[in-house]
Amino acid sequence: MVYTPRRYFIPAAVALVAVQQASATSLYYDPVTDSGTTDEISSKFPARGAEVSDQDCSFTVEVDPTLPDITTISTVTVNYTELLANTTAPTEAVSTLVGTVVLCESTPASGADQDSYATTTTTSTSTSTTSTSQTSTTSSSEEEPNCATGWEDQSSRKLRHTPMSGRRLQEKMEQKRKLESNSNKDIAKLEAYFGSSMETTLANLPTVGVHTPSPWPGPYWPTYQDSINVIWSPGEPSAAEKYATAFGLDVTDFMDKVSKDNGIDSMSSHTVCSSDTDCSSLTDGSSCAIRTGQSSGYCIPTWYGICHAWTPAAMLEEEPNCAVTYNGVTFQPLDIKALISDVYDGATVTTVFTGTRYNGGTDSEDEYGRHTNDAYRDLNPAYFHIAATNMIGMLNATFIADVTAGSEVWNQPVRGYKVYEQTEMTLEEAAQTFYGLEEYPFNAAAKSIVYCKTRLSWIFETYTDGGLVSSGQVDSYTTGAYYYYLLEMDDSGKIIGGEWVYDSDDDHPDFIWFPKAKPSADTVTSIGLSYADVTMLLEKSVACDGSSSGSVSAASSTSGSESSPLSNSASTAGSTAFSSLPGSASAGSAPFTSSGGSNTDENAATVAPVTEGPFATDAPVSTVTNTDTTTAPSSATAAPSSNQGSNNYWNNQGNNYWNGHWGDNSNQNGQHSWFNWW
């Protein structure tokens, strides 16, 4: 990983102190991506769902000169070893043992839908810790203390209300000058885009937010499956073949271009293979992918794909609902999702990118469970909390998160967040509880600490066809993770830094980003895919109506039908006509912000949706050739080899796959059963 330390060069001779300084978690000393490749989707975009060079992920680290040498801080006796930061997250609220309750709400029971707060809402939802946070200038300490605002009570906020000595006043003024001379550049990006300041006072930030309409689920069109050349519905051509046929392009030439752009042939520099055995020595989760009609292919990591294109399309474009016939070719909703996703990969889509991509490289964990690599440890949890609560909770906007901190990139469109626990502590309490130290070592400007437990919910991938948002089936494709972190507070209750703790040291968002706007209407990608043509198909599919051009008919699709080749119930596109909801509630034509959200209580959710998604829809067997068997590949499509052999698709996702991409292992029990019959 390329990075540039500023202000201080850290020599190897002071390794221990260097780790301490490099681990600064003040918002004002965060690593900042400086590669110059973050402003639009391209082959160099750091959020790209494939390999990018270290140069395109380079970042700058500003070293905080005020941090103490951690080796000089005395250790103390730990009263509750189960609360140490390098252990697993406690099952009971931290406030039952230490600290002062700010917010404490029970999470759903094990086996229940962990994302029910997000999956049963019909309007944009946000709940602030104070009902007057945006309109009242009254100090929250003057309000009646309660579960949400109790941390402002005199008894727990002594620092604010005690007389300030001349020395402390001088320290505060010096700190104020330092904070004014330093700013968090990622927060500045958000403020520049939205045209307003980000709220950083914890008491004013909503504790729950749900973005509506939800982004729509779809595949990430894996590279090893030859991208949109994949046959996802048995007996039907791929989306790429359909497009070329309907719009008068040479089918073979167009599909070859697709493969060279984002499919198997784009990986020609990788190890040549004829079976998964040839890829077994690799440690990147590669599978042997072979195009139809070929005897050899390339070892390709199965996480490679165009998630960086599906996700913004799912946010900005309305979801296809019905099948559309054009020039005698019937496009199912999933075909149109393929085409619109590929457009977003090849178009000029401007972006706001925050955080840094961990691109592999040297990393280790210190005795407190903290990663030493700046890019791995980033995002700072303080920035994560500020961004999520401002964007979703206050601005009715959403974003895309790489939900795994490791080197794989899993971009997921975010649906909502909910804070379940906030416990305030003094610096001494936090230092002793989480690190076994006498003094808090990670932010010299901090005056108090608030421990948080927050759920982030996102949409995951599926090959299920139909209008999944309008039908409500999107709830089955919503998952998430609980994040555990410390927020470092200044004396006025503002968030100035943070630390990941417990499982979140390893599993937390790597970066977050979002598209600024749709592609230009006249966009034609390098492979010849026309945004105007795809938009025409999309509009007809959304409206479920006919057309006077090109003999377009709105044959209704199997809304939400499971086109899974993993079962015998996979539907053949267009074989049966089902009624479909007219229109779509998926995504508006405007950028991802939703209009006219209402503030409702998080308990408004009363219906329990299906927990998680039917994973059997997510690996189209019709596009996979097992080179260890005699199974014939589907015609006229890509046929990645051996992905259901000894190295099956789901076993090639890397160490972080289950822990980050699909959310919590503990809450996925019902999802794993399909392994038994696959």
Automatic annotation (TrEMBL):
UniProt entry keywords in alphabetical sequence: Signal
Record's compositionally biased regions (Basic and acidic residues): 168-180
Coiled coil location: none
One GO MF term: aminoacyltransferase activity
Keyword Signal tagged: yes
Region (Disordered): 109-182, 546-580, 612-652
Pfam families (UniProt xref): TGase_elicitor
Signal peptide limits: 1-24
Low complexity bias locations: 119-140, 619-652
Protein name: Transglutaminase elicitor
Taxonomic source organism: Phytophthora megakarya
